Amino acid sequence: MVSGKGGAGKTTLTANLGVALSNQGEDVLIIDGNFTGANIAQHFGVGFQDVSLNDVLEGDAYITQAVAKHPEGVSILPASVLEFNGQEQNLKHSIVDFLGDKDFVLIDAAAGTDDEVQAAIETSDEVLLVSHPELPALTNTLGAKKLAEEMDREILGLVMNMVRDEKSEVEHEDIKELVDEEIIGEVPEHKHVREGIALRKPVVSYKPDSRASYAIEDVAHTLKGREPPKRPLQKRLKMRLQDVSPI
Q: What span, in angstroms and rounded, lies between the C-alpha atoms of 135 and 31?
């Protein structure tokens, strides 16, 4: 998953999307591809690990030593915010033999288009673009898209994240025209997401009936090639009760 710009909520979305897929019966591995600004582990309340992806890339550990199974149902391969002396290019070589039994492997790439991002894209078969509906973020997303295309990776679409439904946001049709990719999901900016981050628990677990959780679950279904479900009236009413103060 790439965003082209920091602050798009990509890491939060990656963590939640992984849990949503796991809840739908998929075997999921989440990799922190941001070796110098790692924080996937913090989103799950894992904290610092004795062995991380950094150690694997530096040749000091096997990948099986760095992967941890989380109670949320996903496997996590965390990176470390400590000093990194490894080679980003080793990412694909380090994990390729480990991925055969996983249904989905989500790589949370760093922002921008530098070596870390290129390594994450090279390791991936497909790329999911993430942005929020503001022009600077969307413009930087174009850079990430171009990089993925240059590396011959399939682009799955664009997820609009942290949507506030404000007049200052770029309109839906203009986003599609600018980025020229299908918008496969729109996740609202919501207090439940921020509360989940503070509690170090994905919102799809913390508030499974919130509007943000439903939006992320819908993206998970779409990635699996399925139509998002129509939720029964009881669930929709529960969502509206939780949604009284979305911001």
A: 28
